Amino acid sequence: MWNAINGASNEIVGGIVVAALFGLLGWVYKRYKALKEEYARTEQEIERMKEETSRIGATKEEHERLTAELQRRDEELRQVKANSQEDSMRIKKLWGQVSDAEGQHSEDLRRNEALQGQLEATQADLRRKDEALRQAEAKSQEASRQIEVLQSELQRKDEALRQAEALQSELRRKDEALRQLEAKSQEASRRIESLQGQLEATQAELRRKNEALRQAEAKSHEASQQIEALQSELQRKDEALRQAEAKSHEATRQIEATQQELQLEKAKPKLPPISDTEFIELCKSGYAPTVEAVIMNGANVNAKDKGGRTALIFAARSCHTETAELLLKHGADVNAKSDNGWTALMFAANNGHTEIAELLLKHGADVNARNKDGWTALKLATINGKTETANLLRKYGAK
Question: CATH number for the domain including 95?
Answer without folding.
Answer: 1.20.1260
